[in-house]
Specification:
This protein is mainly alpha-helical. Helix content is 79%, strand content 0%. The protein contains 22 helices and no strands. The chain has helices at residues 2-17, 22-36, 41-52, 55-69, 73-86, 93-109, 112-129, 134-145, 155-164, 168-174, 176-196, 205-209, 214-240, 246-264, 273-304, 306-317, 321-336, 341-358, 363-377, 385-394, 398-421, 424-434. The longest helix is centred in the middle third of the chain and has 32 residues, at 273-304. The two termini are 26 Å apart.
Length: 439
């Protein structure tokens, strides 16, 4: 059975290398393997429909819609203005403000690419005009944007929760502390750089952003930012207060994003709604096609006995949990160089779940480790999407963006190792709020 799986995996990578879309490659390999075992086409279709009928899956289009509504400049600008005033007088205050605003924006829309596009368009020209080197600014903004898939709500965490049958609210809580640690890590690199270059504290970071200085200006800017700041608190507060389910929270986030964008920040007009809705449908369709294809492959893994064979192999080798996690990190980093995030999740998770159970590794802990590896994939060539987004914004060579991300990438790898080998960083908050969970 392992030999069949190896052939299937080789076939899958061969299809991906020649440019076949991920959902077609996954579906083709899964269907061939299942049909060889005597399954019917009708049976495969029924299985697919049964598993796509999921309340968790229904949350995806609403979160995608919210991200689309928030891509306008109004929300990003208000958050940046507020953060710039909050960090006025601090050494490196303006880039720190960019990180803070990016982290908050990420918590609102849940998409790394959307965060990089919205915040990069606004922050990169301003920071460069204030004397910060362009590679540093591009690396900083691209790295901070990866917080969009770690700080809740996060679309990749929703997909992982669906595939692994893990509580999405628990996964959202698990991402909070690592996300904050990553934001603090980026800010720490900024401070060290500012001190090494002997940059004096800015008299007012808000002046750099073009806002009113002083306490009165801060109050005005805070009032402007409140609608944007309220979105994640309302949505997440509704989930953990027991008022809404994850699907209802996703719908609520889309409604709030639409209202804030149309009526407060005017980042979009009513005439643009059909275009935004069309983009949302297109993005949602691509995600659901990939998820559906992965569910077929997962079905084969379960029926074929491959999962049991893998567990037996791991037990026979006597791999401790820490070594398995280290091997998976190395594997995921390598996969991140050639595959995008959803592909990594949907190919690897069905294979690793039974091993996680055998080694008593928390699915919640592993989910955050996986997402942090996908963050690295967003910044590593040749596939790293954030690299190309930032290069496109600044019309800069991708090599320049890569050079700017290197200090942050090294720090993120160090944080990944810490989170991997000290699971309470991930599990403490969900266990505290929701109670301990089984493996």
């Amino acid at each position: 059975m392992i030999a069949e799986a190896a052939l299937g995996l080789v076939g899958l990578f061969a299809l991906l290398v020649i440019g076949v879309p991920i959902f077609v490659a996954l579906a083709a390999v899964a269907c061939v393997l299942l049909l060889l075992e005597g399954n019917s086409i009708a049976g495969l279709g029924q299985h697919l429909l049964d598993h796509l009928n999921s309340p968790t899956l229904m949350a995806i289009p609403f979160f995608v819609m919210a991200a689309m509504f928030m891509k306008g400049g109004g929300i990003a600008q208000s958050l940046f203005d507020w953060a710039a005033l909050a960090f006025r007088g601090v050494r490196g205050g303006l880039p720190i403000a960019a990180v803070a605003a990016t982290a908050i924006f990420a918590a609102i829309n849940g998409s790394s690419v959307a965060t990089a596009l919205a915040m990069g368009t606004m922050a990169v020209p301003l920071l460069v005009s204030k004397g910060y080197s362009r590679p540093f600014v591009l690396g900083l903004t691209g790295t901070a944007a990866t917080l969009g898939i770690l700080i809740p709500p996060s679309l990749p965490l929703v997909v992982y929760g669906l595939i692994s049958e893990t509580s999405v609210p628990r996964l959202f809580l698990a991402g909070v502390v690592p996300g904050l640690l990553q934001a603090m890590l980026i800010i720490g690199i900024i401070v060290v750089r500012a001190r090494s270059q002997h940059r004096p504290p800015a008299p007012s970071a808000a002046n750099d952003a073009g806002d009113e200085p002083g306490d009165a200006g801060f109050a005005i800017t805070t009032v402007r930012a409140v609608p944007a700041l309220s979105v994640p608190f309302v949505v997440l507060g509704g989930i953990y207060g027991g008022f809404v389910t994850i699907t209802e929270a996703a719908a609520l986030s889309a409604v709030l994003a639409l209202a804030v964008t149309l009526f407060i920040y005017r980042g979009a007009t009513v005439r643009e709604l059909p275009r935004l809705m069309g983009q949302s449908i297109e993005s949602t369709g691509s995600v659901i096609l990939i998820v559906g294809s992965a569910l077929l492959l997962s079905h084969w893994i379960t029926r074929s006995g491959l999962a049991a064979d893998l567990v037996a192999l791991v037990v026979e080798l006597g791999l401790p949990a820490w070594l398995f996690l280290l091997i998976m990190n190395l594997t995921l980093i390598l996969l991140g160089m050639i595959l995008e995030g959803y592909s990594i999740t949907l190919i690897t998770v069905p294979l690793t779940l039974p091993i996680l159970a055998a080694l008593e590794i928390s699915r919640v802990h592993y989910g955050v480790v996986l997402i942090m590896n996908i963050e690295l994939a967003m910044l590593t060539p040749p596939i790293g999407l954030n690299l190309f987004v930032m290069a496109g914004i600044a019309k800069a060579p991708v090599a320049e963006v890569i050079r700017g991300t290197l200090p942050f990438l090294v720090g993120m790898i160090g944080l990944l190792m810490l989170v991997t080998f000290y699971s309470p960083i991930v599990t403490f908050l969900p266990d505290l709020i929701l109670g301990p969970a089984a493996f």
